[in-house]
Each structure stands twice: as structure tokens, then as C-alpha cells.
Amino acid sequence: MSSSLLDPSSSASSADVQAALARYGWDDGWADVFAPYAAQGLLPGRVVRVDRGLCDVVTAGGVVRADTEFVVPRDPMKVVCTGDWVAVDPAGDPRYVRTLLPRRTAFVRSTSSKRSEGQILAANVDHAVIAVSLAVELDLGRIERFLALAWESGAQPHVVLTKADLVPDPTGLSYLVQDVEATAPGVPVHPVSSLTGEGVEVLTAAVSGGTTVLLGVSGAGKSTLANALIGEETMAVQAARETDGKGRHTTTTRNLLALPGGGVLIDTPRLRGVGLFDAGAGVGQTFSEIEELAEGCRFHDCGHEAEPGCAVLAAIADGSLAERRLTSYRKLIRENRYIVAKTDARARAEMRREWRIKGAQGRAAMEAKRGRLR
Q1: Fewest CB within a 10 Å sphere: which of 25, 85, 118, 272?
Q2: pLDDT: is 185 or 369 the higher one?
């Protein structure tokens, strides 16, 4: 890198910026979006870490510490997040993030508050890697929940079955992979052992050249997997408890790290909850086989419960669809509609209408039953 680029306050040509930031995902599209801010003398950069109103931003001249005071919105969905591209002051003490470039994708979950609010976990992501430990029994419902959020984000999901060395029987491992593949149609499933290196090379090739967010619950082996992908002990690792496979909270912030083979990795803290947030399309993609079957139902608004001519129930009856999948689908659909209805008056009205119809149907059924007993 030229000496002029070592000082973030110095001017740099667009070609210099392109070369310096390409490994972090900068391309012609971002350059076009940033052009008006470049004309103002601002500096492009990508947020690699956020901490209490301050953030670390990688620029053509290196990493700078910047204040987010000027981009503190009322909307929590527009706060600066790891993975964002921003425009920062070229000089000053402190430097400030002056604007946030429009996101291409965003991984969002609902907050734990009673209000319907979303929390951005990572921005401008191409691949969402869901780490699932084979040290404990597979929780297929949790995998489906992560997948719904991943599809909704606009990223390509990958399910990584970590600690594959704990399943020495190849046949047993193959069955586990098949179970997850049936749960994740259209999603690559990678059995990986960070201890032996099994599967790491294949996963590295699959996510190279883009931005990858690493997701998972405590004990999933995310930090160990991150170290395997990066090729060095960058992330602190602590052993999981033998009793329940849960790990300690070793990653406390979202960090964006460059991968040696190209692309970047965003490692996230373990997630206590993965609530849906306006993820209707993501739920549909996660249960794509149910959505396809539903097109063959007699009624366009079929609830797949007891309606005549229901193609989904017919698939369960003939064994081509697992009943567990339909149960999980209904659960996530209900949860997502409830979240949306908190802020959407039309959705609330529709839910109330359906409750009234079901209530009337229930009362009619009870009256009919009483009539038969008389």
C-alpha cells in the first residue's frame, strides 16, 4: 500500500480505494452509491466493530475509531451495525460517521422487548452460516427458526454441523446430515470438525469471496469454527459443559474479520433467542415444500387443519410430508403474524376477524354436539 494511504486523512483515488477495500467487499456498486459523499471529501469504510456509540471502521488507510453521534436514528433498524458501509470524516479528533450507506441485506431478529422492534445483527451479508453442534441432540425446530431469519435477510444460508469428530460412525453421521437436509431444503449442509479439519476446506470454498455471518447458540462451536476459517487463534475459545453441551459467553461483540482465502467473516455473540421479525418470506422459503403443496389445495386460503381437498394433509397421510414439519410451520407462521400485527393495523384486524370466525365455528360445533346428545 502506498504511503499516502497510510494516513486516513489523505486524499486517495477511487482506484486506490477500490484496491484497498476490495477484500472487505467494496465494489463498483458501492463506489457508485458513495460518489456523492466522495465529492464532499468524506472517506468510505466498513464497520468492523461497534461498541457503545463508537465503532471501528476499516478504510483505505487502515482502521479508524469513529463516533456515531450524527447517525443515531429513532428507528433501531437504522443504527450503525457491523458490516455496514459508512462515510466518515477524513480527519478530526474524534472522527464521526456522517452517513450510513443503504444496506443490500440485513440479518434481523426481534428484540426481547414488548414492543415490536427489530435488532440488526449483521449488515450486507452474502452467506449466513448456522452452526449446530453434534455434541447434543439436534433441535430441528431451532434450525428452522434460524433458516427463516437467514432467508429473510437475503443471504444464502448454510448449516454447519460442528464437532463432527464426536460422531465416528460414518453411517450415523450420514443419517444426521440427511435429517438436517430434509429440514433445510435448498440449503447446503456441511459436517465439519475444527479439531481434525474435516470439512473446513469445503466450507471455506463455499463462503469465500463474500461476507459471511456466523450464527449459533451457546456451545455450537462458533469461535472454534471462526478460528478454523481464519486460520489462526483469533477468537477466544472455552470448553462447553459436558452436561448439556452449552458453552460460555466468549464472544461479546460482533467482529468483522478478513478471511485468508478472500471475503470476510462476522462472528456474533451466542444468541439467547432468535425471535422472528417480519419474516414471512423467510418462513415460506424454509418450508418451501409445504408452500408448493399448498398450491394444490382446494381452497386458496386453506389452513391445512381439517379442510376438504387439502394437499398438505394428504401429503402427511401418505407419508411424503412429516407431521413435525407442518407443526413447526404453523408455529412460525403464527409467531410471525403476531409480531407483524403489533405494528400493522390491517394485520391486527385480519387476525381479529379470523379469531371471530374460529370462535363462531367452535360455538356452532358445540351447539351441534349438544343437539345430537338431546
Answers
A1: 272
A2: 185
Neighbours of 53 (CB within 10 A): 11
Note whether 211 and 263 are within 8 A (CB). yes
Cβ-contact 230, 205 below 8 angstroms: no
Single out the residue of 13, 124, 94, 125 nearest to residue 60, CA to CA: 13
Name the pTM for this structure: 0.80
pLDDT tens across 223-271, in order? 899 999 988 766 555 444 444 445 444 445 789 999 988 899 998 876 6
β partners of residue 266: 213, 256
What does the block give as the cell for 52? 457503545
Query: Given the C-alpha cell 376438504, which residue does it identify?
Result: 308
Domains located in the chain, CATH noted: 3-100 (2.40.50.140), 106-267 (3.40.50.300), 280-373 (1.10.40.50)
Decide: 5 and 45 in contact? Cβ < 8 Å: no
Q: What is the largest CA-CA distance in the chain?
A: 95
Question: For residue 290, is pLDDT > 70?
Answer: yes
More confident residue, 213 or 236: 213
Which grid coordinates belong to 130?
Answer: 448456522
Torsion of CA 198, 200, 203, 208, to 10 degrees: -160
At 316, the pLDDT band (50, 70, 90 cuts) reads very high
